[in-house]
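Technical appendix A lists one of the benchmark inputs used to test multi-chain prediction within the project. The record comprises two sequence entries:
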Amino acid sequence: MFEYAPAPESRSIVSIASTYGLFIDGDFSDGKGTFKTINPASEEVLAEVAMAAPEDVDRAVAAARRAFGPWSALPGAERAKYLFRIARIIQERSRELAVLESLDNGKPIKESRDVDLPLVAAHFFYYAGWADKLRYAGFGTDPKPLGVAGQVIPWNFPLLMLAWKIAPALAAGNTVVLKPAETTPLSALFFADVCRQADLPPGVVNIITGAGDTGRYLVEHPDVDKVAFTGSTEVGRQIARSVAGTGKRLTLELGGKAANIVFDDAPIDQAVEGIVNGIFFNQGHVCCAGSRLLVQESIADELLDSLKRRMATLRVGDPLDKNTDIGAINSAAQLAKITELSEIGSSEGAERWSPPCSLPDHGFWFAPTIFTGVTQAHRIAREEIFGPVLSVLTFRTPEEAIEKANNTPYGLSAGIWTDKGSRILAVADKLRAGVVWANTFNKFDPTSPFGGYKESGYGREGGRHGLEAYLA
Amino acid sequence: MPKSAPTAKPAPAKAAKAAKAASVKTEPAASNGRARLAVRKTYKLYVGGAFPRSESGRTYLVDGDNVALASRKDARDAVVAARKAQPKWAGATAYNRGQVVYRVAEMVEARAAEFVALGVPAAEVDAAIDRLVWYAGWSDKIAQVVGNANPVAGPYFNLSSPEPTGVVGVVAPPSLLGLVSVVAPAIVTGNTVVVLAAGPQVAITLAEVLATSDVPGGVVNILTGRAAETAPWLASHDDVNALDLTGVTDPELAADLERTASGTLKRVLRSRGETDFTVDPGLHPMTALLETKTVWHPKGF
């Protein structure tokens, strides 16, 4: 591997305050306590953030309720202009937000800069254009907003998940109370400032920070009309249970255990790039990660040799270094979970391999890892690891590949690698997954609906389909 | 829970219905002057294309008929039958599914008198037939209306298409029009169903229609009995993908079933109080039971 000199992105573009309050009704205010958010690459404390208590959630929902009437009564074209403004401000402050995201989340700057932020701006731009065209979207000639949306988002793509939640909600005329994840609250709080810069009316967007209890109180709040959640399947079940019988609308985007299927006629080098992108993008903290590699037996050895060669070139380290491929694991808790499941993989008999790579002394790190000799009974083939860990299984026939791919309660995404068009279409038809990437992987676009089958949740985010969740 | 739960209300026993039913059962004097003894119908379940009795051996009395009282195990058998039939039914062409649903309409038309004799108003039978014809036509159009190409910012082919969610548990309303209005949207889109019927004689007569309409066995399975007893087993069943609660009138039972369904993250079509089945149902009964699959492929020479 070539030696690279360090190429760190400057931190000076972002100025982080020492404390942040809750963004309610257009202003920041204190909560009932605080918690610290840290840089997972160094464990340095970045800021203290307010912990929203139930009465703070009440205030936020009340603000959103007051704002709902005027906001939903605005002509769609006017709502659109606010969203276009937000999209533009995000583009203008893109580098600042990218550095902030990498600091708080641990993801490599090249991903926050080239993937997250461009998609965030594009998402607002896309839904801005829908605001005055809702009656053409195919959900009735006079579609109406639902009211106040309570939204809870995860830590893996903090600002992008915020965009997926807020952009369609606002375009459709709803107001929102959004809770970012406990370990990555900062970009949502900076987004609050973006809203102020855009002169968005107070109360249309409210950001409350806190942990699981805050989120639970928000989704169970009686004055919330719609709940949108992205996160683990376990919490998704609890939310579905708590919403039952209330009449609230609900969309859930939950876990996954995607199969990435490589047939014997696939171009190996391209497939290897797709496999690496599929599982090591964003440290594998991706619900649609291609975490189960299904490779046709006849090419398994050749493919794995090639994959290992490629993995040895991955650079693990400082998220702000522009050459970094794999950044920091988001939290100590997530690192513990990845470590535990990987140890179970070894103890259940799968063969573990990682390229030689030195990891920094501070912060949370996990070397890119593959397990071979994995069977469908192994826990690492069944459970979502949410880290840079790939389980490799083999198959002989397309039927066997499909059977194995679908042998999971999840159904979020899948990958197919083959040169044969008819096989792509036949296999894509039979995969029980909401997104199927053929000869590519982990591609996202604001126009393209995203969401799962089975226990990966319900509802779609993105595209025309994504409007349905916010319209009556 | 199922045993102590309140029992579902049986179909309203209207006086007119009873009178008409009686007229079918006791035939008038035969031409030779002697009274002919009627051959009565046995109302059994409809599972996997066959008409079995309840494995429990139980029956209950509805308007003078001993009707099969379905059990938990019947519900599970019906789910197995529905799952087995689902891939082939979903894999049939939309054109073919439309033809089959249209055939159901033809067969209801042919047996209209039988439904009227069971107390279904003639206008309702007509409406049910028309509803079936309406849904038959949707089979090869729904994908065009709710699916679309997505203009992604890159050299990719990207297409979103609807697919059936799989096996749907349906708590059906008692009327024929209501029953048809919940079954047709589920099956025309490629799902298979386990129906907990509220009006047993009407539902089993519809099953006889289905059995003679080219509907493959297992696509529609109909259980008679107490929804409050069997529905929780469908709601908790790991191999049921969605639950249609249109026929549940008790809000507490509906909430209970929705809570139970959350364990496996089923799609739930909630009951919305009294549904007016005479109005245009819109797309929701179909789209609630559809998934959206988005397929990406690079473009390039």
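The radius of gyration of chain A is 22 Å. The mean pLDDT of chain A is 97. Comparable benchmark entries are summarised in Table A2.
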